[in-house]
């Protein structure tokens, strides 16, 4: 098998990308609809790459913890796919790109309380209801999963962020109540949101996130400990969902510019997968109008170009 990418080239490339990132400082805004996130210093940048042997390369603030926000939606879906039968999930939430903002109400009303996919807020809240209604210790399990996948026992929830989200829950609560009104959500809305907000409030660094997602580049097996997280088929399915739905109504543009399965969060993180090769995490808090990191997107474009990785051909 040919060397998939030149390992010697990777560290200098990451260093160059980190050095170029400040050019985009000042572009975009931090997410201020969650007050605790508005306090994060906006002009920061980190990048980490984890290969399928678990080796990590890093540059910039790769070890600074940030709020992973919607990146947690993938980790929650993984728990659901591990524990639930397929129809229990996919009769309640779809698998199509939404073409709408991540927190939009309009489509959910039109489609009678069935969210388009598990990565928009409504779909992710729905997944949290599936989990909270079946798993007693779901908070504990979410944190343990993040720690185990990243190989970092120090990972924790940022309780201030979780509280801040609960204090400003109106839109997510509205989505949950709409699903309840249509009979697609049964648990207490606050119990469901508490799980959802805690997932969003997991504090992880680029190195943590890159390691935690390496199983998606490695046929479902976590290279940290050799454990199968999901099956090879589920790995393909998750990567397909990430490619089509991971960046919301900018998923098409992300596929065009970067060409990888990916997931963004309003904390400024983006994780991307090069199947069979590596997982990548970039972080920079300023966001574009879609809620995706401006400097992070630029960095991913440069990395893909610099390494010549192109799983789509
Ligand atoms: N916690 C955020 C919210 O519910 C997550 C959104 C995101 O990261 N896109 O709005």
From TrEMBL:
Coiled-coil positions: none
Catalytic reaction list: L-glutamine + H2O = L-glutamate + NH4(+)
SUPFAM superfamilies hit by this protein: beta-lactamase/transpeptidase-like
Keywords: Acetylation, Hydrolase
Residues the entry annotates as binding substrate: 70, 121, 165, 172, 196, 248, 266
Top enzyme category: hydrolase
Superkingdom of source: Bacteria
Protein EC: 3.5.1.2
InterPro entries in the cross-refs: Beta-lactam/transpept-like, Glutaminase
Entry keyword Hydrolase: yes
Record has Electron transport as a keyword: no
Pfam families to which the protein is assigned, alphabetical: Glutaminase
Listed GO MF terms: glutaminase activity
HAMAP family registered for this protein in UniProt: Glutaminase
Assembly and binders: Homotetramer.
Family as reported in the entry's similarity comment: Belongs to the glutaminase family.
Name by which UniProt lists this protein: Glutaminase
Species this protein is from: Pseudomonas benzopyrenica
Originating gene: glsB
